[in-house]
Every structure is written in structure tokens, then in C-alpha cells.
Amino acid sequence: MKTRRFTALIMMLIAVLLFTSACSSDDASGDGKKEGGSKSKEPIKIGVLASLSGALESYGKQTKQGFELGLDYATDGKMEVDGRKIQVVYEDTETKPEVAVQKATKLLEEDNVDFLVGSSSSGDTLAVLPLAEEYEKVMIVEPAVADSITGSEFNKYIFRTARNSSQDAVAGAAAIAKKGVKIATLAPDYSFGRDGVAAFKEAAEKLGADVVLEEYADPAATDFTSNLQKIIDEKPDYLFVIWAGANSPWNQIADMKIQEKGIKISTGAPDIAALSTMEPLVGMEGFTVYYNDLPKNKINDWLVSEHKKRYNGEVPDLFTPGGMSAAIAIVDALKKTKGDADADKLIKTMEGMSFETPKGKMTFRKEDHQALQSMYAIKLEKKDGVPYPVPVLIRELTPEETAPPIRN
């Protein structure tokens, strides 16, 4: 009798355990989700690499501000997608590739980020690209422009909202290159400058121009005398300048009276700080990636208005919309995957994906994940009440016009 009661008790316990196990399997998260639901409620983590100090500090800060505004805009201020909160960790690369690798490794191993974003320097970015592949995480490249990022060094985890050197080159060449025109170039001696010149030369020569001299200066240079003298001696029709950073050559170009010697200057209109040094170049025709009143769309209107509210009346600068575009791209992709940050699903979703940005519609080209986007042919003019030459629109260059060669 006792044996039968003991056996019955054991059978009841087994039944209870089986029932409990079944319930746990159906509701592993404890919140009514099916198996895997707990993961869906974990925060989405984004690691942003930027030059928050050093020569490219202003670019890093613009990207950071734009990224924060972009997340606000794309999530309606909720900072979540499909019930998953978004957390962002910023790291300063100091514009040093070895530091960029250290910071990226920390983001991937210690912070366990789902995405990487960055960085301000092409050198930093190229150093980090292999880590995105090693850790199988999608990396949005912004604002680094070296062609090799989506060319020879490309891997499938890389998507770029920034324009690349070839897009700059197509726009720059369209402004000045034609048959019989002689052009000299001046650029910094690292991947950004050399890739930019190579792309510009290819585009200019297709239009019949002759690039007669390529001058490369130390990226940290403050004295460009020897470079500019070589250019003067060559007597080109145009000097096309590619530069990034606070140590720009504009004052020295004016001091050495390059234009008075019959050499016209052309360049991409830079950020506002650099525009302030370009008074001698009023009347110059060139191109720009962005100036706050050039794009005419509701997202750019929101960006300009919100930026003024948050940053003491200041307008967004050259790389602010790029940061915003990177954030919008991430949120749009996550909305399509219903909050799933699995890299393979994201890659499948993002290849060929179009999304609206402050510069209008961008599309990630399937072959190399480069965002096709608008650029702007401009002329530098003086405007009442503005203490620097202003880029005035000649015409918008469409994403189709500025589509760069596929180089991967």
C-alpha cells in the first residue's frame, strides 16, 4: 500500500516537472514571447568611432551630432526599434589607425555592439574594416571617403553612407575639365588624398583634360610653399585642391597669389570653418557634398531647425547630414528586419535598400554597398550677414550622375 502511494507521488511530481518544462519552453522570456523572445528585448548596441580630438575633431563632432539627431528623427524620439532600446557608445580614434583598432576591438569584445559606425579618417577606417569581417558585424562607414574602403579593401559587412572619392571626382571634374585644359592637383599624402587624386584624374581625363602635376603634402603640414611653387612653375590652367582638416592651404594660396598668376582654383567647398578662410576664392566654381540650404526636402528642413534649437543657433555643417544618414539607414534596416540585428539578415536587407536622408534619397548599391547620392555644383559667393563665402547652387548633381565606378 505504502509502495503504491509512493509510486503515485513520484508520478505526480514527474507530471508537474514536465508541465513546468513545457511552459518554460513556450514562454522562455517570461513576457509572453516565444523562444528567443528574451533576445529580442535586449538593447541594440551601436559603437561609433570618430575623431573627437586631433586634426579632424570638428568632423568627428559633426558626425556625432548628426548621428544623435538621426536616431531621434528615425525613431520619433523613442530611441527604440520593435521594442528594443538603442544604446550608443562613442569612442575617440584620435585620428590614429592603431587607436582606432584598439577602440573598435573594445566595442566589439567588451561592449558587444551590434553595429560599428565610423570613422572621420580613411586611415582609421581602413584599419578597422577587417574587424567588421572577423566579428561579423555590419559597419556603416561615415564620413571616410577613400575609394579602397568599398573597393580593394571591401568586405560584405561594409556599407557606406559617406560619398567616396570617385563621387567627389566626378563632381569636381564636371566643374572644370574639358579638352585641352591643364590641371595640377594638391592633396594630403595618405589614402584620402591619393585615392581622391586618382579618381579625379580618371574623371578629368575622360573629359579630355590633362593632369600635368600631382603634388602631395604632409597631412599635418602648415607650410605649403614648396608644393605651391612647383605648381606655379608648371603653369597649369587650374589647381584642383583636395584637403581635409583645419590646416588648410587656402591662406597660403592667397599669399602666393596663385590666381593672379593665371591659375584658377577649384575644389570641393569644405566645412564652415574652412569656408571662413576662403575669402580669396569668391567666384570659384566647384562642388560640395552639402551646405545647409542646398537640399530642399522635409528631412533637411527638420535637421536645420532642430540643429539650431540644440546647438545655440548653429546650422548643420558639412558632415552632420552624413551622421544623420547613417543613423537613418540603421533604423530603417532594423525596422525591415523587425529588430533583428543578425548580420546576414541585415546584409540581405540593406543591399539595394533606398532610404530618405537630408540629401534626398540614398541607395546602397548591391555590388559594393556604396550609397548613391546627390552632390551639388556650386559657386562661392558673398552674402550679406554671412561672414564667409557661401556655396550657391548652380545645379544638383543626381545620384545617377555621380555614381562612381565599381572597384571591388
From TrEMBL:
It comes from the Bacteria. The keyword Lipid metabolism does not apply. Keywords: Signal. The keyword ATP-binding does not apply. Residues 43-382 form the Leucine-binding protein domain. Residues 1-24 form the signal peptide. SUPFAM superfamilies: Periplasmic binding protein-like I. InterPro entries: BCAA_transport, Leu-bd, Peripla_BP_I. Belongs to the leucine-binding protein family. This is Amino acid/amide ABC transporter substrate-binding protein (HAAT family). It comes from Falsibacillus pallidus.
